[in-house]
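Late entry, zinc ion complex.
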Amino acid sequence: MSPFNNQPAGKTGHEDILWNPEIIQYMETWADVPKPETAKLEGIFSKAPTIGGYTPVVPEVIVAFDGSLYEASADQHEPSRRVGYIKVGMVALNVQKYQSLSDRNMPFVDPMAVNRLQEQNAISMALPSAYLKEKDYDSIREGYRAAIFRHYSSDNTRIGTDKHTMLDTVIDLLRINHAVVNDGGLEVTILPSCPSEDNVCKEQNVKVSLVGKSACPACKTSLFVTDTLRVWECFSEFSSNLESFNRLMLATEGIVLAHSLLFFKRTNQLSILSNFAFVMDGPLSISGEAAKFHAPIMSLINQLQIDMIAQKLAPPLIMGLTKTGMSVEHFMVRKEAVPDGIAFPLTDEYRYTNIVGGNVRTRPFGEEFYYGQDVLLKTDEGRQFLISLPYPWDSKQEQGFKKNRFDLTHYRNVDTAIGIINMFQSDLYENSMVPVILAHEYASISLTPGGKILDLVTARALGAA
Ligand SMILES: [Zn+2]
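Prediction complete; structure with ligand written out below:
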């Protein structure tokens, strides 16, 4: 979760506004906020699948991802000149060793010992923002697009000895999405419009070569394969770019997941992948300008899992964990109505009737950005988690998706999701669990040395401080 999402809401968040007579009148006259009756919700939850029918499974390794972003003044005398920084942290935790630490009947787990069980890695990106033009490019936005390309194609994104960069993964996802075409013997992908600096170039359907350099035929601006992420669309050359950075961070989290999964496939290590679980921060979705990448990620996960099952390998759990937001708040407020030990897939009907308000839409919720189904999981100990499991279909056009996406029996790895939630549920952090807290703290951008913060928070998470 980014500081962008967590930052104080500023002036408009002030409670005083609720006492403003115009606001009171507005709320009474116009607001139509769902107020579902407890008895009605209890009726719905009483029909939810129980987790008692599943045998919890614990994977050997949990990899948790989390991103954070920061924007700062690049010059203290000209503070409007700004620079951005995005970090997507990955923490891999060896579960057996972790268990052996916590089984020793100690009042708390030694945080340094936990740190030794972790493998940490991160994708970091320094980016231009307002009034910060890169010297090799004609405009601020062109420099931003170039910086994204440079980071994605960097050797730093290679995993182990594998030669593939994140750019290769973007290209693989474009291929899965049928967005690569042959143009006279050259493979290209097509941008609907030219991403030029001031949006005055009207060129449409510009071709971007998958290898080498490309330029817009009309305005000659440089074109990059990573322009397909389209986060430049909400980039501003003269003001803060938290929105664009947030979009880029969320897209990068999803692409890092795909990159990690493809690593095991490219290096023929699916039997190792079988022991892994991946936990993403937030729902399984890519929102905003890069949303179309949700579709190839959904397809990639499903195909990989099907291939592994065919090879008699257990597919890895891929799970989103949503810690904040309207749905989490909704269920927290109504915790008493939710029985212990259930796994309730959030139907569109439930969401629109009880959370969002208004009529149930005919198009699936999150059609353009979700690649997983939200499931409310309440443990036998009474702790609630809003998790997300990948849709087990190649595309949303399939009948299976349309008919069965709210039926938990179609989903894979429910047993593993229950296993790791049971094991890592934290008394100290509602809605979260230890590996996710570690990833979050690792990803957090701090001006003090990162290791110290990690030690402290790890200790706190494990009850030592
Ligand atoms: Zn152009």
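DSSP finds 16 helices and 13 strands in the chain. Will revisit in the morning.
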